[in-house]
Amino acid sequence: MTSTKNSALNGTNLYERMGERTTQPFAVQLLDELEPLTDLSVIDVAAGTGGLAEAASERGASVLAVDLAPAMIERTGERLQKYPRSSARIMNFVALDMADGIYDVAISNFGILAYPTWKSGLDEMVRVVRPGGSIALTMWTNRDDCSPAHLLHRVFRQHFPNRDLWPPGLFPMFSPASLEEGLLEAGCVDVRAQTSEADWSPFSSVDVVDECDPMFRSFPGYAGLDDIERSNLQRTLKAAFDAYADVGGVIHLPTRAYMVVAKKA
Predict the structure, then answer these.
(1) Which residues have a Cβ under 8 Å from the Cβ of 166 and sit 6 or more positions away?
(2) Using CA atoms, how far apart are residues 190 and 208, in angstroms rounded to an integer?
(3) Phi/psi of residue 261, nearest 5 degrees
(4) How far apart are CA 128 and CA 113, in angstroms?
(5) 8 Å CB contact between 139 and 257
(6) Smallest Cα–Cα separation from 112: which of 135, 133, 131?
(7) DSSP assignment, residue 114?
(8) What is the torsion angle, in degrees rounded to the nearest 10, for the CA atoms of residue 197, residue 202, residue 207 and residue 210?
(9) What per-residue string of b and e applies to 61-100 under the rule 16 or more CB within 10 Å gives b?
(10) Cβ of 259: how many Cβ atoms within 10 Å?
């Protein structure tokens, strides 16, 4: 039991340190689209380690952050302790345990859209928001090297065209049109979908592959490589990252995500 808990905590720490560096810039952009947030009630669905929830609380919102993972919610709760009107709870995003229409805003930053059940999650987000309230979502474009993970995916396919890096359907394919359609079907109006960009740089451009290695091991295809396969892949991976380096050798990867904001009818 202790080993399982420690593993969960290590995964949470890794996500906060590495994962949030790719997702948090889009959380900030999404919150900018929703301003002013002062005194609004916000539910952050599939909140992860709480980066968006903390940022929204800093802007004056009262936030409930929900996620299925106990370790994620424990960490989010720690980060929200300094905001008396914000809290975190374990909750399934396809069955939110709360009444209809009680929130001003429902947000999911790279959350529900990462699952095949996203339409059920979207229905729940819309259900718990008041008429006229806002729904906001982000998801990777899945085009080109839109995130460090997608750059790895491209290189992985070059080396192992008959293997999967991650389970099929892990990152469902979207377009602005399909996202708009989904929100309209869920009962939203005034849907605005756009492609947003943010700059991602590793802590050390020289050691970018070693830095990303613990995060990439969460993908089954990468974790299952033997030493020789991983070494060969990493050489190509380093060259792919270096293609985004500036004249000083610092890597700047232009990450891209769809960002969509709508109103509940």
Answers:
(1) 153, 219, 220, 221
(2) 41
(3) -130, 140
(4) 18
(5) yes
(6) 135
(7) G
(8) -90
(9) bbbbbbbebebbbbbbbebbeebeebbbbebebbebeeee
(10) 20
Query: If you search the block for the tokens 């509940």, which residue do you land on?
Result: 264
Which residues, including other chains, have CB under 8 Å from residue 162's CB and lie 6 or more apart?
Answer: none
Phi, psi (deg, nearest 5) at residue 219 = -90, 125
For residue 234, what are its two tokens?
A: 């990493």
Other beta carbons within 10 angstroms of residue 228's beta carbon come to: 8
CA distance 149 to 172: 14
Per-residue pLDDT of the chain (265 residues; tens, 9 = 90+): 544 444 455 568 888 888 899 999 999 999 999 999 999 999 999 999 999 999 999 999 999 999 999 999 999 999 999 999 999 999 999 999 999 999 999 999 999 998 889 999 999 999 999 999 999 999 999 989 999 999 999 999 999 999 999 988 777 889 999 999 999 999 999 999 999 999 999 999 999 999 999 999 999 999 999 999 999 999 999 999 999 999 999 999 999 999 999 999 9
pTM: 0.92
What the block records as the tokens of 238 is: 């380093």
* AA letter at 116: P
Task: Name 139's bridge partners.
Answer: 258
**138 forms bridges with which residues in the sheet?**
109, 259
What is the DSSP track for 51-66? HHHHHHHHTT-EEEEE
The residue behind tokens 């005194």 is 39
Q: What is the distance of C-alpha 79 from the center of its chain?
A: 18
Between CA 68 and CA 110, with CA 21 as vertex, the angle to 5 degrees is 40
